[in-house]
Amino acid sequence: MNILITGPTGLVGSALIAKIQKSGDTFTGLTRSSSSIFKSQAHWDPDKGEIDLDSLEGHDAVVHLAGETITGRWTPEKKNRIQSSRLLSTKLLAESVLKLKAKPAVVVAASAVGYYGDRGNEVLTEESGPGEGFFSNLCVKWEASLEPLTKAGIRVVNLRIGVVLSKDGGALKEMLTPFKLGLGGRIGDGRQYWSWIAIEDIIGAIFHCIENEKVKGPVNTVAPGCVTNSKFTNDLGEVLRRPTVLPLPAFAARALFGEMADEALLSSVRVEPKKLLDTGYEFKYVRLNDALEDML
Q1: What span, in angstroms and rounded, lies between the C-alpha atoms of 151 and 280?
Q2: How far apart are CA 125 and CA 274, in angstroms?
Q3: Three-class secondary structure assignment of 275-292
Q4: Torsion, Cα of 98, 103, 104, 106 (10° steps)
Q5: How far apart (Å, rounded) are the C-alpha atoms in residues 227 and 14?
Q6: What does each C-alpha distance from 268 to 120, 162, 189, 195, 271 come to in angstroms?
Q7: Quick one: pLDDT at residue 36?
Q8: Nearest to 97 by CA among 159, 11, 16, 30
Q9: Which residue among 15, 23, 102, 147 sits deepest, i.e. has the most Cβ atoms within 10 Å of its Cβ?
Q10: Residue 208: what pLDDT?
Q11: C-beta of residue 184 within 8 angstroms of C-beta of residue 233
């Protein structure tokens, strides 16, 4: 296959490219950078509506991963970057794909479990409706931006991704330093569910979605072993052989991160990967402890 990838230098994009290079497939990185990063590279600037349309021809699949990271305090400026980076890029990509002479068979695009909002102990599948709040509303618009492709007969997959675990970046890397120093602990009361997935299984799920023609629409991209924040904290402490006795109270999380604390850290999202399991995807990591042991 020849795969077009947006967000090729991010955590998931980098891991996907490493897998593609080992598999013998080829790829083109669609990037804002004007410098040469990849052997095959195309330029775009969603803020300006610019894209190198000719370089998009000849791809079997598109994997759309571009978007501002949600980590950090959600100031009005940060929220604007989070939203515009997703909506502008997805709209431009969809419009551009529709202009191609030879259109890709499938577009696999990132979304997030934030679609569901704070849902307590409710078990959530792809059939569950959206929640409330800034990020939930954004996810609804984000996924809707690709509907023109579906109407044109192109298979679209929306990956509702959970907390990505990788020692190379993302949430886990941010946690390692305080936890290694014995400064880790639960966030809030620790009863909120965190839906996680190992980086290896995200990449496996992306290939599964590309190759399996039965997979379309929203796909919960999380491990079957969803855990509470307390369980996550305890498992990470055990693997690192460090105490986890310094909790971060909810008020302190809000003081540090603002709205992001309520929508990402304190929010409870108990998600099941029903569609991946029903279509035969076999997870490498089902137990959190196993994933952490292998990574760390």
Answers
A1: 27
A2: 6
A3: HHHHCCCCCCCCCHHHHH
A4: 50
A5: 27
A6: 5, 12, 11, 9, 9
A7: 80
A8: 30
A9: 15
A10: 98
A11: yes
Coil, strand or helix: which one is 186? coil
- φ, ψ for residue 78 (rounded to 5)? -65, -45
Q: What pTM value is reported for the model?
A: 0.96
- Name the burial class of residue 165, with classes exposed (0-12), middle (13-18) and buried (19+) by CB atoms within 10 angstroms of its CB: buried
Burial class (CB in 10 A: 0-12, 13-18, 19+), 177: exposed
Q: Tell how far CA 21 is from the center of its chain.
A: 21
Read off the pLDDT band of 34 (50, 70, 90). confident
Asked if 264 contacts 112 with a C-beta cutoff of 8 angstroms, the reply is no
pLDDT at 241: 96
The most distant pair of C-alpha atoms in the chain lies apart, rounded to whole Å, by 59
Residues in the chain: 296
Tokens of 212: 């399996």
Give, in words, the CATH class of 2-295.
alpha beta
pLDDT at 33 over 90: no
DSSP string, 226-254: -EEHHHHHHHHHHHHT------B-HHHHH
What local confidence, expressed as pLDDT, does residue 28 receive?
96
Distance between CA atoms of residues 97 and 105, nearest Å: 11
Whether residue 231 has pLDDT greater than 90 = yes
Q: What is the pLDDT of residue 117?
A: 97
DSSP 190: S
Pairing between β-strand 227-228 and β-strand 193-194 as defined by DSSP bridges? antiparallel
pLDDT at residue 295 is higher than 90: yes
**Domain locations along the chain:** 2-295
Distance of CA 16 to the CA centre of its chain: 12
